[in-house]
Amino acid sequence: MLLTLSAALVVIGCTERQVHVTGASGPIAWQVTDFRIVARSVQGTPRDLYTFTLVLQETQGTALTFRQVVSRLTHPSIPTLPQQSTVLWQLRPHGELRQPFSFPLCTTDACKHAAAMAPWSLDLALLGTDQRQQPLRVVINTRLPHAPASPFLSSAATPEEGAGPIPFETVQNHIMVRAVLNQQEYATLLLDTGAGQTFVTPDTAQRLGLSLAADTPTRTTTVVGGRQVEVPVVRLATLAIGNARRDNVPVGVLESFPHAPLFDGILGGSFLEHFTITLDYPGSRLWLAPRGTPFRPPTVPQVAAIGNRAVPLKLANSYLLVSAVLNHTESVLLLLDTGASHTLMTPHVAQRLGVEVTANTPRRTMMVADGQRQEVPVAQLAAITVGPATVERLPVAISELFPYPSAVDGLLGMDFLGQFIVTLDRATQQMWLAVRQEYRKFKRHFRPVPSAARLRRRPRRAPGACGAPRALRPPRRSGPQQGVARSGQASRHGRG
Predict the structure, then answer these.
(1) d(Cα 46, Cα 43) in Å, to the nearest integer?
(2) Could you name the CATH architecture of 163-290?
(3) Which of 93, 75, 74 is nearest to 83 (CA)?
């Protein structure tokens, strides 16, 4: 969710000599960074937006969850009101979270004059709980620089280079990365392994001077739910993420985020297929290594691979497919989709699992690639197992994927992948899953699953959310959004 702090505020004038943009509050060290003024279209009207990133780092080795943010921009001469937002920000022990903020700059002369007389101050209160469900309140106060300098556009990236570590922002379980397009325009893109191609919004294409004519080639794109969309295709001279660059990249022009003007497109398979990708979700870092180079795990502190073995992947054009087992019984083939905030299964798979959708089944609003929203039913699965890793009690959406019969049974989304440090190597068609040591120690459900012989000696329990032996059952957590991860041997009860 893009948090808009105010709709009628301006920041202009000289840069402050001393701007306090770092601090600490309880178990959180915080920083306000990446100050920019950008031109965007807001509900069809060109506006200048003041943007920045709030960086939160957990410092005491405990898991934190924030569910409410109260924000206020204050000025001695301009009246403002606080804004309250519902969020779901999860910080792993010693992990990092980066959240984007923005507000439009006002255009009236009186507001500009008042803003030039004194700096704006930002007050934030983050409300949540720690791992023991004790209430937590983190208070952040800082001043904002009047006129942030334009970011330097580096031309050092080359097609042969890798990149990392690259910080990324996480918005509603989506990974947003900073890109440089045509060596002239900064853009924020959703990293999406479930998208076969890369897209930019019409507003971004216009800023780049890419015109769409009647004879512009088009390509048919299928979005979740089976709807097909004709998308015009243009070419970027260069697309760079850090030092990793590709030249002459075809991109579709698609309005993917009609209500989020700071999001400029989708980073999909046409770029990602050229790299081995490592995503450190707890640390909010990305690594890109040119495809085909020897795999070298990035240096991430205190990391342990789960099971110390790779998970096989299948390639289908630009897509990555992985085998999984649902509820310890049903073998499925899932599209590995970092652009999906939640895992999804088709109605046929739900039927095989005995999941019945009724009028009382919970629903969730899901946004697909072309910006459309659709309501989908949600069912909680006892467990999803991928290779040596299992996430328990995970709510899964139910929806069709494609308009024709397909071997793909669903999407493996961020609610599963976000539990791990994930490496995707297309050259060897393998995936590695790892966890930080402190998170492994904190989560008792990261213990290896006992051997089959030991399990046979234990009394049988009915399958479901409480079907695991008590010694392996993770601590109860409130809220249906919480998926619980553990490691161990893959289930042997699946078919195939």
Answers:
(1) 8
(2) Beta Barrel (2.40)
(3) 74
- C-alpha to C-alpha distances, 470 to 133, 166, 210, 482, nearest whole angstrom: 21, 40, 59, 19
Q: Report which of 323, 339, 322 is spatially closest to residue 331, judged by C-alpha positions.
A: 323
In angstroms, rounded to a whole number, what is the distance separating the alpha carbons of residues 263 and 174?
11
Of 49-63, 248-262, 414-428, 452-466, minimum mean pLDDT range: 452-466
Q: Which residue has the tokens 């294409």?
A: 205
Residue 420 is classified by DSSP as S
Q: Cβ neighbours of residue 480 under 8 Å, at least 6 residues apart?
A: 362, 378, 380, 395
What average pLDDT does the segment 343-366 reach?
89
Strand ordering across the sheet containing 45-58: 3-4, 96-104, 45-58, 28-42, 22-25
* Amino acid at position 2, single letter: L
Residue 429: alpha-carbon gap to chain centroid: 23
Q: Report the CATH fold assignment for 3-143.
A: Immunoglobulin-like (2.60.40)
Listed by start position, the domains of the chain span 3-143, 163-290, 315-420+438-487
Q: Do 30 and 57 form a contact (C-beta atoms < 8 A)? A: yes
Backbone angles phi, psi at 446, to 5 degrees: -90, 5
pLDDT band at 160 (very low <50, low <70, confident <90, very high): low
